[in-house]
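Reviewer comment 2.1 asked that we show a complete input and output for one of the modelled complexes. We chose the flavin-adenine dinucleotide case, as it is the one discussed in the main text.
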Amino acid sequence: MIAVAMLRALRPRPFIISSSSPSSPLTSVSRYISTLVLAEHEGGLVKQSSLSAVAAAGTISEGNSISMLLAGSGPSLQQAASHAASCHPSISQVLVADTDKLAHPLAEPWAKLVHLVQQQGSYSHIIAASSSFGKNILPRAAALLDVSPVTDVIEISGPQLFIRPIYAGNALCTVRYMGAEPCMMTIRSTSFPVPLNSSDSKSNGAPISQVDLSTFSEDGIGKSRYLKHTSQDTERPDLGNARVVVTGGRGLKSAENFKLIEKLAEKLGAAVGATRAAVDAGFVPNELQVGQTGKIVAPELYVAFGVSGAIQHLAGMRDSKVIVAVNKDVDAPIFQVSDYGLVADLFEVIPQLLEKLSEKK
Ligand SMILES: Cc1cc2nc3c(=O)[nH]c(=O)nc-3n(C[C@H](O)[C@H](O)[C@H](O)COP(=O)(O)OP(=O)(O)OC[C@H]3O[C@@H](n4cnc5c(N)ncnc54)[C@H](O)[C@@H]3O)c2cc1C
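Response of the prediction step:
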């Protein structure tokens, strides 16, 4: 085991721990690499996080044959399939499972679908993004296929060699997968960025095939039931992919005050984030939580107001390109990872920012 410390002046980076000797030979690699990407879609488009999973699949090995699996029913599925066929040059095939049983992305039927598609296609790898969708489905599918998944991969060093964070992102672990095929993993989409609107100009696109669902059994599917889909604000950028994120912590003190964060985010065209303390206090819903048990983000600009910088919060945002923190406590740990820090009262700073940004318009 080796441990290497990589330290930077203001933004301490994690330790790297290797769980196996890097010089040891790779365990037997499958006859050829073929990867199934589990894709999430909405409004007829494949989600950006699933495109990151394709980008990750592309780094497994040269010549990897990548199939993208979409499920659902109706016209929006067909639209998403067309999008999938032309959205990334690495996709060689789009598989579509069109059935009412998969109209909503429930984990149990999806896991069964993955099991079925694996039996039909014998993929060497199965990948999904570390979104709620991927984290919900992949472990269930792995259990059905009797393999152990590798989660939260941030770097792929070879077909069976992966790097993932441990201890809330304070150390990086090199994992060698030595189990049976398929090798299943979730990847952090922030580590495999795909430019927005990266649709490929290929004229024909990848072929689209229907999955043979004749043996798709209904056993055990009814364990969960779809109730409804609620979405906070469709106008705002998605927290996981936004270029700018404005986050509020417990320092905001109330849901009413948290609206200051929302106003500022609106002016900056940013997504809104929150700490777990802010979520637990009921200021905002938990889908906005950033951190170890929330979303992992890595925007170009992350602005934190009234956030102390607990290790579990840093785990979700420390890879942001530029971090700005406003906190009235000079010793707040958030300043240790910030590129710019302002020791000030957020209730004075935000109104001033709002005023200045209005003047600029
Ligand atoms: C297993 C586990 C998982 C967790 N997962 C997460 C996670 O995913 N995400 C997460 O965020 N947390 C997570 N936590 C909680 C985490 O440990 C912290 O409790 C939380 O991040 C603190 O949130 P906060 O910074 O908003 O609150 P606090 O720590 O209370 O900090 C509030 C900050 O606001 C500042 N402040 C107060 N008033 C003002 C003002 N007027 N102007 C400027 N600054 C002001 C204070 O100086 C203080 O630094 C987890 C904890 C555990 C145990």
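Residues 107-121 form the longest helix (15 residues). We note this here for comparison with the apo prediction described in Section 3.2.
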